[in-house]
Automatic annotation (TrEMBL):
It comes from Pandoraea terrae. S-adenosyl-L-methionine binds at R35, G54, D75, L119. This is Ubiquinone biosynthesis O-methyltransferase. Pathway: Cofactor biosynthesis; ubiquinone biosynthesis. O-methyltransferase that catalyzes the 2 O-methylation steps in the ubiquinone biosynthetic pathway.
Length: 231
């Protein structure tokens, strides 16, 4: 299975804090509106069948469901999925959650989804190329796929690891393994090898003084990629 047991354990132990906006997941809550708006700039979600890969506690899944999408979220953390399922019931949203690897779902449901999202996940798995290929299999021809991850360079190490985990303490220490960060050129190669066309590359920056996130052309640290599966 394309998963790191230590990564799963780490996020499972924090599962009960997914929906606390002041918890370790505060950054996810704060960047979610930016990510959602960026996705909707590329494809209106209303009525679309959407798969959220590595959905965790369901922050993005719920926001896409509120936009009128028919959402399925998958993850390998049963505790995170339990939190996601309960919160969706409390929110009155109809979201299907399943504990399954994306590669297994791709074998079962190829060409099923209009949109696939895989955000903040690729840097946590042993083989990101395998995840990209599975996402490409799951989306319909002409469908859209959205990835986000962390660049691998000294600036990213300084800001995303040293700054975020040790100085500002925005994230628990050990949240990220710098060796697993992915350069945009590497992600682009994974996408092209899987039959995907890259439509947009966008960075996300954080100002520690204003505590404000913004979309940017600066892809040195956090970045997002929009792709289309060739018909």
């Amino acid at each position: 299975m394309n998963a790191d047991p230590q990564e799963l354990q780490k996020f499972s132990e924090l599962a009960h804090r997914w929906w606390d906006p002041q918890s370790e997941f505060k950054p996810l809550h704060e960047i979610n509106p930016l990510r959602l708006d960026w996705i909707e700039q590329h494809v209106p979600l209303q009525g679309k069948r959407v798969l959220d890969v590595g959905c965790g506690g369901g922050i993005l899944s719920e926001s896409m469901a509120r936009q009128g999408a028919r959402v399925k979220g998958i993850d390998l953390s049963s505790k995170a999925l339990g939190v996601a399922d309960l919160h969706s019931l409390e929110s009155g949203l109809s979201i299907e959650y399943e504990e399954i690897a994306v590669e297994a779902l791709a074998a079962r449901e190829p060409g099923t989804y209009d949109v696939v999202t895989c955000l903040e996940m690729l840097e946590h798995v042993p083989s990101p190329a395998s995840v990209v290929a599975a996402c490409a299999t799951l989306v319909k021809p002409g469908g859209r796929i959205f990835f986000s991850t962390l660049n691998r360079n000294p600036k990213a190490y300084l800001l995303a690891v040293v700054g975020a985990e040790y100085v500002l303490r925005m994230l628990p220490r050990g949240t990220h393994d710098y060796a697993k960060f992915i350069r945009p050129s590497e992600l682009a190669a994974f996408a092209r090898a899987s039959g995907l066309r890259i439509d947009d590359l966008r960075g996300m920056t954080y100002n520690p003084l204003t505590r404000h996130y913004a979309l940017s052309s600066d892809t040195d640290v956090n970045y997002m990629v929009a792709c289309t599966r060739d018909a």
